[in-house]
Design brief:
This protein is an alpha/beta fold and about 325 residues long. Strands 3-2-1-4-5-10-11 form a 7-stranded mixed beta sheet, with helices on both faces. Strand 4, helix 4 and strand 5 form a beta-alpha-beta unit. Helix 1 runs parallel beside helix 9, helix 5 packs across helix 6 and helix 6 runs parallel beside helix 11. The relative contact order is 0.18. Bound molecules: adenosine-5'-diphosphate and 6-O-phosphono-beta-D-fructofuranose (F6P). The site of adenosine-5'-diphosphate has 17 residues, from helix 4.
Length: about 325
């Protein structure tokens, strides 16, 4: 291939810029022209693009967000939208595409590949919810942002002998909740993957902790479960412990990417370009046991990620 495109799609994630940089510079290294496509699949359809040079991606490795911007493009969920995308790529001479995003974006990548534009997906989402890869770009930065905020909440909660309910991101996935619960010493983590019983999983541990002399409590709730404000009111009513709720929200999507995110994004970006350089599309780049590998998009999308109980169980043991 002589000319490839790169776009970011769906929710942004810290480290997407590092992935864009890797795609652009390795593309140039392998003798290709690289086109940056703005605002996800919208920019592909409308031809909103720029020619990328090694200098277009200077000074972005350490920046959050995505310089190409991102979008959710409803038109792309219909075959007509995908065909417009392929047509537009052909007009611009783009022979292959790298899509950095989550599983929704990979469905678009699969459709593009099937319609004749070889496309490779790079997993970029703070949720870490893509089954074929151990890791998605942005997860570590989001965890550290949440950890930093929760440590601060803990300072004030301890001063007031309060219980804190903290809601973290993850509409369908509880990975951020489960990881920060262990990292921040929470009494409980409530995640969408597992049913929970309010009395057994929240009230009992708080009451038991009180008997053992605990002076503060931390409950982490994933966004997909929600209801953290109501939970706080109920905890206060049932335990007599003053309780506050904090919803961390989009703070978790921004910020300078961690070393893990910069390195993973760099490795995955180069791997994606190496596939396209060999004329291979319809793949998802993944990390499996520290190795960068790739899967057929459908095979990858059909895999199921199952959150084990291990993390939550360890948190429970250690929160005595
Ligand atoms: P993410 O990629 O983070 O999972 P979304 O689910 O919002 O985010 O998907 C991002 C974009 O991918 C959508 O706005 C749409 O353009 C495209 N997309 C999502 N689902 C499909 C689908 N089933 N077929 C084709 N394109 C899709
Ligand atoms: O998929 C990443 C994510 O941040 C989820 O954790 C969250 O539920 C969703 O995106 C929020 O999306 P939006 O920015 O459109 O509100």
């Amino acid at each position: 291939m002589k000319k490839i495109g790169v776009l970011t799609s769906g929710g942004d994630a810290p480290g997407m810029n590092a992935a864009i940089r890797a795609v652009v510079r390795s593309g140039i290294y392998y003798g290709m022209e690289v086109i940056g496509i703005h605002k996800g699949y919208n920019g592909l359809i409308s031809g909103d693009v720029e020619v990328m040079t090694a200098r277009s991606v200077s000074d972005i490795l350490h920046r959050g967000g995505t310089i190409l911007q991102t979008a959710r493009c409803l038109e792309f969920k219909e075959q007509a939208g995908v065909l417009k995308g392929v047509e537009s790529a052909k007009k611009m001479g783009i022979e292959g595409l790298v899509v950095i995003g989550g599983d929704g974006s990979f469905r678009g990548a699969r459709d593009l590949s099937a319609a004749g534009l070889p496309t490779v997906g790079i997993p970029g989402t703070i949720d870490n919810d893509i089954a074929c890869t151990d890791y998605t770009i942005g997860f570590d930065t989001a965890l550290n942002t949440a950890r930093d905020a929760i440590d601060k909440i803990r300072d004030t909660a301890r001063s007031h002998e309060r219980c804190s309910v903290v809601e973290v991101m993850g509409r369908d996935a509880g990975y951020i909740a489960a990881y920060v619960a262990m990292a921040c010493g929470a009494e409980a983590a409530i995640v969408p993957e597992q049913p929970f019983d309010f009395e057994r999983d929240i009230i009992e541990p708080i009451k038991e902790g009180k008997k053992r002399g605990k002076e503060q409590n931390l409950i982490i709730v994933a966004e997909g479960v929600g209801g953290s404000v109501e939970m706080a009111k109920r905890i206060e009513k049932e335990t007599g412990i003053e309780t506050r709720a904090t919803i961390l929200g989009h703070i978790q999507r921004g910020g300078s990417p961690t070393v893990t995110d910069r390195i993973t994004a760099s490795q995955m970006g180069v791997h994606a370009v190496q596939l396209l350089a060999k004329g291979i599309g319809n793949r998802i780049v993944a990390r499996q046991r520290e190795e960068i590998v790739d899967f057929d998009i459908m095979e990858g999308l059909n895999m199921k990620k199952k959150m084990g109980n291990e993390l939550l169980d360890i948190s429970k043991i250690l929160s005595m």
